[in-house]
Amino acid sequence: VTVTWQNLADGLLLGSVYALMAVGIGLVFGVLRLVNFAYGQLVMAGAFALALASQWGWPAWAGIVLCFAVVLALSAAMEWVVFRPLRGHSPAVMLVATFAVAFLLQSIALLWFGSLGKIATSLTFLGRFWTIGGVDIRKIAIVAVIVAAACLLLLSVLLERTEIGLHMRAASMDFSTARMLGVRANRVISFAVLISGALAAVVAVMLTVQTPLVTPDFALRDTIVVLAGVVVGGLNRPIPATLGGFAIGFATGVLGGALPTDQSQYLPTFVFVAVILVLLVRPRGLFDFSRTVERV
Amino acid sequence: VRRLHLDEVIAPVALVVAAALLGTLVSISTQTYFTDTLVKVAIVVALYVFIGNSGVLSFGHISFVAVGAWTAGVLTVPPGEKPAIMPNLAGFLQHRHVDNVESLVLAAVVGGIAAFLVGIPLMRLSGLAAGIATFAVLEITHNLLQYQERIGPGLNAFSSVPETTGLRQAALGAVVCIVVAFLYARSRYGRLLRATREDDAAARAVGASVYRQRLVAFTASGFLAGLAGGLYVHLLPVQVNSVYLDLTFITLAMLVVGGATSLFGAVVGALAVSALDSWLSVAENGTSLLGWHVDLPSGSAEIVVGILMAAVLILRPSGLTGGRELRLRGVSWRGSASRAQG
């Protein structure tokens, strides 16, 4: 197997996108203890918004605005209709519930747009190649890395330097104690859900550049892989979760390009076998070094 | 005190028999929905054996349904037609041929073995790690069955498998699953596993091995899932995507809607969601209800089922039956041990 610069660029692209999805999933998990399986459907909705905007002939910026508006509205609706009533249920019930929401949104998209999907064309210029030192790299790979780094930086400033960030960190450590100390639950949760939605919109923009054909199962496979990556990294803290998402995206991106077809078709098998092995060795996550065992 | 609540098995079996009898009254084209429903009952009961008794979520059981379907399918396609749909089949499978009943038994056995082998490492996990790891099993199985053409049709459908799963075979299969699930749940193993579900630490303290009990249940439910897969491949031309995410979703929905912690709940959920789903599928082609003409756009069945499942989880997380068995007074049969003790 020879790994080219092109493969590494693809790996960085997918790693950056998955890292953002991992943060989006991790933020909501932090405050709600809820694994949002329907996260990919937020991305899918944003991608359809972009596709519709380009079909209507809107300029690229208007499409991106529409994408953010749709994804944020859907996130807010999800928090209002699903997450809020589910608060305090067992993690298993919440996971199955978001599984149901995921399928619901996917069936709505299927009914609305059909299984053939739509094509988002307004941002295709980002999918073209740049030749740097004899190496062809798609512009989106560079844009994705920069955007992801900027998002993560902004987010860490927000979490470390602002009051709402402090509240969010407190809430994800111990929600009930945080509430007793004056953290407003609904405000913190809504904020986390909206940021997570904004990240989903960013991901939608980057994924549609990579794959302009938007179908109802858009980002479904990515969500499954990211979820595995996030759990492998360690769900309960943001940095391990992000690292887990980046690692699985990078590995998938590099190997998917570098392996010959007769091997790369088994890539999901390799990736998920690795996921199982890591979970067996470190069930609480690869990057979680705290030791707490429930005592009776 | 040993008490065998026979009503706990009579009620679900009666529901299955009633559904099968109802199925004999309708047209042949509608009958397929009933047969399909009964196969779903078998799958959901298999899910119940593990998820219901252990309280651990598994997204991976449809793998064992798939393994069962592949086993029964590969062994019952007439040898003359194998090269057409499975050109790259391994040598030792090319000429093997078994009859209907043998194929179902083998499907169950292979499903059980697969679950046992997968369970040996995986049953150490619980919570989210278990959920993701079982999901990984589903992904791996799907990926391998899709591309490994030495053991099956790959992306082709099992088109020339004898269609032996009619109403009777499906009903018998579902009843077998219910009886096995009942006997398991009433056994020492089932009781110990439920003890670990209710209080892990207390169960350990009385000497129950959580790992061993979960492995027993996982194997038993893999066995039943394999049987259900065998029934499924004899019902319709199964294809790799028909034993993947959609089936995982709908069967988990059935289990949760009915009430995951009881056998009765599993059967009620499977029948209720199937009935709704089938009726909506019919309504997508236009039908009438109480004199009203109903014509739904295609795809609305999935939407309604999705809304229903989310609503049940939010409003009634323990399911329609509340996760309890149906107990009829007077039908319960007390063992001599309990009578002797008064």
Can you describe this structure in just a few lines?
With 296 residues, chain A is mostly helical. Chain A has helices at residues 5-32, 39-55, 60-86, 91-113, 139-161, 163-173, 175-180, 185-210, 220-233, 238-258, 261-264, 267-281; strands spanning 118-119, 129-132, 135-138, 213-214.
Structure description:
The complex is a heterodimer of chains A (296) and B (342). With 296 residues, chain A is mostly helical. Chain A is built from twelve helices and four strands; from the N terminus they run ααααβββααααβαααα. The longest helix of chain A has 28 residues, at 5-32. In chain A, the strands form two sheets. Chain A has a two-stranded antiparallel ribbon. A two-stranded antiparallel ribbon of chain A has the order 2-3. The relative contact order of chain A is 0.20. In chain A, a hairpin with a 2-residue loop joins β2 and β3 (135-138). Chain B has 342 residues and is mostly helical. In chain B, α1 (7-25) runs antiparallel to α8 (167-186) and α2 packs antiparallel against α13 (263-284). Residues 330-342 of chain B have low confidence and may be disordered. Chains A and B meet through α3, α4, α9 and α12 of A and α7, α12 and α14 of B.
Largest sheet, strands/sense/barrel of chain A: 2 strands, antiparallel
Q: What's the Cα radius of gyration of chain B?
A: 20 Å
The low-confidence runs of chain B, each spanning 5 or more residues with pLDDT under 50, are 330-342
Instruction: State the helical fraction of chain B.
Output: 55-70%
Rounded to the nearest angstrom, the radius of gyration of chain A is 19 Å
Structural class of chain B: mainly alpha
The rough form of chain B would be described as globular
Number of helices of chain B: 15
Order of helices and strands of chain A: HHHHEEEHHHHEHHHH
Number of strands of chain B: 4
Task: Determine the most extensive contact between two protein chains.
Answer: A-B, 42 and 42 residues
